[in-house]
Amino acid sequence: MRDVVTGAPGILDVSGLSIARNGKALLDVPHLCLDGPGPTLILGPNGAGKSLLLRCLHGLIQPDRGRVCQNGAVLNARHKARQAMVFQSPVLLRRSVAANLDFVLKRRSMPRAERKHRIESLLDEGGLGGKARQPARSLSGGEAQRLAILRALALDPETLFLDEPTSALDPSATQMIERMILRASERGVRIVMVTHDIGQARRLASDIVMMQAGRVVEHGKAMQVLEAPESDESRRYLAGGLVT
Amino acid sequence: MIPDFIRASIVALGLTAGASLAEEPFIIVQSTTSTQNSGLLDYILPGFEAETGIDVRVVAVGTGQAIRNAINGDGDVLLVHSKSAEEQFVADGWGVERFDVMYNDFVLVGPKSDPAEVKGDTDIIAALAAVASSKAPFVSRGDDSGTHKAEMRYWQVTDVDPTVASGTWYREAGAGMGASLNIASGMGAYILTDRATWLSFGNRGDLEILVEGDPRMFNQYGVILVNPEKHSKVRATSGQRFIDWLIGADGQAAIESYELDGQQMFFPNAR
Amino acid sequence: MQSFASEFNQAISLILNGDAELWAIVLLSLRVSVFAVLISAVIGMPVGAALAVARFPGRRALIILMNALMGLPPVVVGLLVYLMLSRSGPLGVLELLYTPTAMIIAQVVLVTPIMAALTRQVVEMLAEEYSEQLRSLGVSRLASVPVLLWDARLALVTALLAGFGRAIAEVGAVIIVGGNINHVTRVMTTTIALETSKGNLAMALALGVILIGLAVAVNAMVSALTLRAEREGLRHA
């Protein structure tokens, strides 16, 4: 559990959000405000709608109803340009490690010399210093996800969304990625991350959104949700029981 | 004009036939496989080309297709062997005038075993009737070529309509002379062929000449300039030069001197 | 018929003796088909990629049509191009019939649908994988086309080689529009057809051996590329 380090920008505000398919509600979030300073972790069983909520927040999916606001304004292209997302399995371009970062920096119209410098410092940060020229697709799972996070950070995002970034990784790879996420949070990047790993939530979260069957069943300080959950669903999930 | 622009860019790519278009004139001769496969044209054309600097490009197809291509204007000179079709071509205005050039002859070849017992015959009509009654396999060009037209003329004189037996002993190849000979060689069948193609054919297998010398088997070649009034792009001057050469002393002598296996192939008879 | 062995020996000696005429024919074949394939790629690849990422009514039908065109019979293509280029045809004024350019045009018509269809398949698969990530990075559909084409480059080279294989081995179309004119439009396949019709099987076989050799070389390149792609993780899942 983390204490407040610095105030994160970009308060995310959700109201009346709903998505339904074939008469079944996949997502139904009347209100949710992400304004905590540290990482927000979205927790819940499979099919709870965690990834769907994340994609709505990032603007990848248009909800049937409702809206997402950032600092009070409806999410727009300028906001989205300052958001980045890391997916469960990293989608790396079929190019070298350095070229994957360069792709993003070029889109930001950064001059060549500055790009080169930035790539070096990013690779150092992710522990990929010696692998700049290697084909990105030949990296190990942990390295690939680190590169995906570096590429997201190369956008200098205000908000970084992560969708179960460590679900396929071993403990040491997971640890390296968690360290990168915490460093980004400390620098003032708002972190919104989906996980179903309670231990990970314990290690990273400043606040926790607990989801179940498309609804937010609890949202509060990490300590409070983990130690004294208010809803039955949260209690059962944290106890490792079946949530139906 | 757009076509000019397109042509200019194609020339710039160095792809057109004629990188030689401007400096080296050429004509296209629509002719038959027999003149090409026999090697006659390869033998006589260098003489004309050296004398005039005109490159002769030969498209060798069946007589029927050659005439159709010429009607479309896709050739400057027609050199084929089906006199009635050629005269029709001129009568319809597609050609300027028809000239006799040369003749060779058809021969009936067949398997050495000769199941129809026609070997030594000099009467092609009787021989074909014998083949029909023996039901021994017979391969026809079946492609509206000059040779095919000649064959059909012979069948007409017999009482037999071979096409009712098509698919049984009568096989219509729908192919060129060489391809049809390959088929006949493969199945040991009788086939009517021009002598030149036969002599230059390398895959005779078990076949040999069985019937020859019937005057009805003479095979007359004619040459015609495609009418420039029908197709303005016809290279009439160069084409006429080629025709004049072919039916003149030099061309006729060249045709006469062409031999294969010590045999004269074509007999010049331009008047 | 002479034995296969003796024909084959003659064929090999024709190749080994480096018959100048034979090599001129091989070179013309390569020139025509390489040009045709490059032009087909320039037309077909962007079309295929656009079909892969664009969404519009009639897209399905267009894809079905394109896949059907992959199997166009060469003789039909030859006939159509002949009718266009004939002096009595709409493009007769260009005087292109019986030239290498006419053969290139026919091969472009044959190969472009292959290029477009293979490109669409490859790019569509890749687009599916990249879609969310590229949108997350703010790359529009249109802007994603060059990204996808570049990242699919190895598969596209394979498509290029497949198109080349079809072009160089094709006889039905080029014999109609090229006319098989000696020293002008006589390529490997039309020479094989001609020499076979003359019963000159050794020469036909020699060219056949060279064609097969080219096919083997092209396939070896495809397989080498695929191997490299696997090593570098460039293949699609």
UniProtKB/TrEMBL annotation, chain A:
The keyword tRNA processing does not apply. InterPro entries: AAA+_ATPase, ABC_SmlMolc_Importer, ABC_transporter-like_ATP-bd, ABC_transporter-like_CS, P-loop_NTPase. SMART domains: AAA. Residues 12-238 form the ABC transporter domain. GO terms for molecular function: ATP binding; ATP hydrolysis activity. Transmembrane segments: none annotated. This is Phosphate ABC transporter ATP-binding protein (PhoT family). It comes from Ruegeria conchae.
Automatic annotation (TrEMBL), chain B:
It holds the Pfam family PBP_like_2. InterPro entries: ABC-Tungstate_binding (IPR052738), PBP_domain (IPR024370). Residues 27-248 form the PBP domain. PANTHER family: EXTRACELLULAR TUNGSTATE BINDING PROTEIN (PTHR37945). The lineage of its organism: Bacteria, Pseudomonadati, Pseudomonadota, Alphaproteobacteria, Rhodobacterales. This is Tungstate transport system substrate-binding protein. SUPFAM superfamilies: Periplasmic binding protein-like II (SSF53850).
From TrEMBL, chain C:
InterPro entries: ABC_perm_TupB-like, MetI-like, MetI-like_sf. GO terms for cellular component: plasma membrane. Pfam families: BPD_transp_1. Keywords: Membrane, Transmembrane, Transmembrane helix, Transport. It is found in: Cell membrane. The chain crosses the membrane at residues 22-54, 61-85, 97-118, 154-181, 201-227. It comes from the Bacteria. Residues 26-222 form the ABC transmembrane type-1 domain. It is a multi-pass membrane protein. One of its GO terms (biological process) is transmembrane transport. Belongs to the binding-protein-dependent transport system permease family. NCBIfam families: ABC_perm1. This is Tungstate transport system permease protein. It comes from Ruegeria conchae.
